[in-house]
Amino acid sequence: MRIFTLLFSAALILSGTAVAQTAPAPEKPVIVLVHGAFAESSSWDAVITRLEKSGYTVVAAANPLRGVASDAAAVSGLVKSIKQPVVLVGHSYGGPVITDAANGNTNVKALVYVAGFAPETGESSLTLSAKFPGSTLGDSLTAIALPDGDEDLYIRPEKFRAQFAADVAEAQAATMAATQRPVKLSALGEPSRIASWKTLPSYMIYGTADRNIPAAVMKFMAERAHARKAVVVEGASHAVMVSHPDEVAALIETAASGQ
Known about the structure:
Blueprint: H1 2-22, E1 30-34, H2 45-53, E2 58-61, H3 68-80, E3 86-91, H4 94-101, E4 108-114, H5 125-129, E5 141-145, E6 151-155, H6 157-164, H7 170-179, E7 183-184, H8 185-189, E8 202-207, H9 215-224, E9 229-233, H10 240-243, H11 245-256
Parallel strand pairs: 1-2, 1-3, 3-4, 4-8, 8-9
Antiparallel strand pairs: 5-6, 6-7
Helix pairs in contact: 2-11, 3-4
């Protein structure tokens, strides 16, 4: 009887060990990338390649660039359709969009701001960009009148590389200028409705040579949000996800792993 008891106990121990060894790995969150003004979804191409190589499912959302609340509603609908955990990543004006879109979506686990605005309630992209000197965006824009009295803003092609993507190869920057998507002027001035970075872990990466959002603004927002990690890329432009995809993908993976 004693031998049987010992054998039975040993079997239970071995069985427990086997279960522990075969337990499934934690589910990787889906990465939802949201581009900003004067860009489009392909601006994430190099980042997507790196994340997919690491086993992540990635969705590059089409940001309408019409207004913070309406754009956030579009992204929020996408997030709601995903049953797995989600990490929301926003570039530039995509920052206010993900900040709003995270509200009410309990599957959002982290926010990553890639040279992106992280507004407090009531703040807008325009008010934040002017908080510290250094932005030269206004002098680079051209406006097209819209039927509703608003304006669509573009960066003038001849100024695009210097303003937006100074550390990107000339030919690639020219393609980015040709494929840029305009943002409504009112969208840049629309105040944020919620600061979801107060309740979600946030991460930030930005360049010291950003001419759209000055590095001082990014530093201020990172400190205010108590970002878990803030990466400063020396000499990087506003298009940091294009010129430094390794660093951007690495920070997204850090956020996805909850570090």
